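Quick entry, no commentary yet.
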Amino acid sequence: MTEATMSNPVIKTILSRSATKYYDRAATLSDDQITELVRIGTSAPTSFHLQNWRFIAVRSREAKSRLGPIAWNQPAVTDAAVTFIVCGQLVDTSVIPARLAPLVEAGVMPAAMVPEWEIPARDLYMAYPQRRRDEAIRTATFGAAAIIYAARSLGLGSTPMIGFDADAVHREFGLGEEEVPVMLLAVGAERPGNWAPKPRLPVADVLDLV
């Protein structure tokens, strides 16, 4: 790795991340801090600017007590300051004009370009249920990843989790029919005992240069 790479603070943040197992149970995050993490998360890319995601911040004792049993009682759910239920929304291309309106108003794109986005998006997704769902999962995952690295840059730990009863989460937290609970993401201050970043496969094993 080059010296320039090693000295880059963004890269150092990414490479220093590891899933957090032990959280400081007494540490909290303010609603403003939680809001800021999601604001950063929603800067992640989405197809056709759909922004088809939603984040439910489970941070009260009462809400954690509801989530814990349907998330296999994983300690991170109750120990971390907040656990996000990261939801992807099945693609609905009818929202594209509204999503693009701020870009048109800001002069970023001409109004005539809006149907040039909406029509191909409709053709790509709306007759294909699996593509609509796949895109919901991709979008939510991009947003969660941005939150993970934002949290790390702020000195916080995070734990992405797929161990939960999706149907129960859907019912208990009032998800819409078009929403998919993609993952849980715990975020909070760490306490001692967490692992350092784990070694990964050699790049040569996963990269083909063609």
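second:
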Amino acid sequence: MNKGVKKTSQKSTALSVRTVAVQIIFQVLEQGKSLSVLLPEAQSSLKAQDLPLLQEICFGVCRVLPRLEQIVAQLVDKPLRGKKRIVHCLLLVGLYQILYTRIPAYAAVDEVVSTAKSLQLQSFQGLVNAVLRRFLREQDGILAKVDKHWQTLHPDWLVNKLKKAYANWRDIIDANNQKPPMWLRVNLQKNTLEAYRTLLTEQQIDSQVTSHPQALGLAQPTAVQHLPCFADGGVTVQDLHAQWAALLLQPQNGELILDACAAPGSKTTHILELAPQAEVIALDVEESRLQRVKENLARMQQQATVICGDATQPQEWLAKLGKSAVRFDRILLDAPCSATGVIRRHPDIKWLRKETDIDQLVALQEQILHELWQYLKPNGVLLYATCSVLAEENSRQISRFLQQTPDAELVELALPAEVLAQNQSAVGFQFIPQADGGDGFYYAKLVKRQS
């Protein structure tokens, strides 16, 4: 567990869910830690049936944080600062439960007041109780003030960037503020799309098809253990727009292919579904993240070389593999980015990412692009991808690379006409998040000209 989150016993109660949730929210907002790190660490200390509520509270508070903050400001005379910030987070959790869950309002108040005691905040129990009960009494008037104007629920710097870049910027914000749909990628080596859809129907799981040949969208999110054939690699959970990556790369059997920044491995396994006899190297800079890649490969019964290394230093990890002189037929570069296209899946990004981060990410992307390009064969393909909606990381990045790299050529993407019509970029292809569709994603396909 991270410092600041108390380890609870295996006989955890519903009360401890709120305790852990408050501490996690505190660590996100005050210490800049990520839900994707904190939630897995907390799982071992809670019962399985408590985890959905923990996730609902933590993701939910981050999704609607500005609205909750404005409500607290209406109810508390002086801002809760310093050591009192944990009390502020406790109020956020209480308000979220009252407004966004089916927990009866007075039960939610009682539970949050009790949570103050478990957090050793007994001296604030009276304050918490008074604030939340006042909200219940004055709810209509308070919400009328708070909701008088449309709320973006996004930081101003990001809203301003979206306004400048997109005429339909409000659509992006609205999609970001919704819970994400669940998409599946059917392994066509094991089932046809329609055959797998029939298996879902037999389990009373409704799904929809799209123009993507392997994608199914679920009407309601479903735990993976309830998905037919999941355990033996028949299906993978992967966003609709992310599923285009391997298809656009067009891997072939017998080729040497690099999946750079590969974790958690969804694209690695997709490459091997399309080209089972390809030699694939899955690279990521974080050893801990590579465990997920290995688990996904094992579940899919696939083989790849998995290595921890820095994409800006290819000579180092290639030397470890004894491949210093090799050149790749294809490279999938899913570059480190702002992740502004997947905010609905990771709402804490809105509060963890800073405007100053963007220039640093752009510089890193540029460095990786130039380094990996040197290890691509003539006539080889590099597919550049991000889960960002910011032009600095996407179209401008690729335009600059083309200007600086004489042997690089941008080629058209083989996408269905109805998908091509969605493009929001003059250079490459920009998906924006869609309420019932895929996340924000960018693709540019580059071919290396013969000298």
